[in-house]
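Supplementary Methods S3. Input chains for the assembly prediction are listed below.
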Amino acid sequence: MMDKVMTLDEVAGELRDGMTVGIGGWGSRRKPMALVRAIVRSGVKDLTVVSYGGPDVGILCKTGQARRVVYGFVSLDSIPLEPHFRAARQAGSVEVMELDEGMFQWGLRAAAQRLPFLPTRAGLGSDVLRHHPELRTVQSPYDDGETLVAMPALRLDVALIHMNRADAHGNGQYLGRDPYFDEWFCMAADRAFMSCERVVPTEALLAGGPLQSLSINRMMVQGVVEAPNGAHFTECPPDYGRDEAFQRAYAASAKDDAAWEAFRAKYLDVDEAAYQKAVAK
Amino acid sequence: MTEATRADVCAVAVAECFRGDGEIMVSPMGVTPTLGARLAKATFEPDLVLTDGMNLIVSAVLPLGEAPSDAEVEGWMPFPRVFDTLWWGKRHVMMGASQIDRFGNQNIACIGDFHRPKAQLLGVRGAPGNTINHATSYWVPRHSARVFVERVDVVCGVGYDRAAALPAPSRVGHEIRRVVTDLAVLDFETPDHRMRVRSVHPGVTLDEVREATGFELVADGEVPTTRLPTAAEIEVLRRLDPKGHATKEVQS
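Predicted structure tokens for the full assembly:
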């Protein structure tokens, strides 16, 4: 079986300007932050970022690498409003497609099934359709004749996810309580890259958690990166919780240019090893 | 008996929103909604399905902030299953509202023009899908004319006028049941589903509610007073909120 182990910077090197990048996790939970930091170092730009958004979206808006964001929400959970994303929206510096959270999932699933769209009632009557005239409706061909939202496939060039454990072949395991939508991100993408807390031998996976925790199989994944503490500062239970103090410092970096430049110099314009050293307690 | 605070009255008014809901998932957003939902489950709606706010279905009715033990967990509700459940219709959500209008259209997305907002808020989150699929209520901890507006800037949660414009099959799950605030309980039980004052909290006048509302409220005849908690309910509330989080959200 293929050995798919890569480095963070090798994954970032696979991205090209203008790509559509899906990022797994949810809000400030189990986000592939080490990969996001590698994207910042790479300088790749004009990205469309597709995410149940957290600091991944905030950072890529602030660095100007996200030209467009597709999301249902952008939040840091314990800090409800993502300050860098807010600033970008209020400055008009980023294009958006703001979807109902369920519509978003449907878009990933349509892409994963290679369908043009999937029907849903979510969005009917709301301003989501008014703000995004490219979203269309479809009439049921059956006797009910109901008009439904035709949620278009959210096709991704690349998906990035972070798991607790993985093997070198791309089998991934979450040990927390929620798989989120990571598997659909992977299947919606041409290529998916998975960082993890620890790469373990295949035969050690089931010793770490139940069968149901193996939510990602190797067909879904083209690259694996071992990135301990790689979801920091978002949570990655049971390995670690959210670093709330660091998240507050991150949020405070939106105060003014000087605060951001200081944050960026210390935590983003450095390699992952230096980052981890800087945040070690 | 300890005297009931305004926060207690609000928690009971929230609990009343879920009366008759039976065996469905109730998703309360925020302190007072969570307390109210737990009060309902602990008293008159024991079959409600409540989570820890994340991914565990919790069988026990626990104090706010207390994590369940393994023996107090009855099921698993990860986010993908939440969407399955809400599209299934077996759910009643209580959301917040940055703005709400007379037909119950709700905004949590942004203030100002969507394409260049003055203030970006949360985004539409699950509000469009929630409101079109199952019962929805709202909690507004500070009743004011900034929240209760003539027109919301973005329709996230779908109100009755928007729903009425849809064909019948599309609104099969639509119901905006109540809006509970620190001043009053409001509903939409009018012929054209305009917001009505269902009751005013003890010590609040109808005029105060009207002054704090940016549109004309329906009020038929003598508006009742929101009921006080029973002694048994007060006891449950003190057990569920020993640190008094709800009194920080709603001042007496």
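Chain A has two domains: 8-99+154-268, 118-152. The mean pLDDT of chain A is 97.
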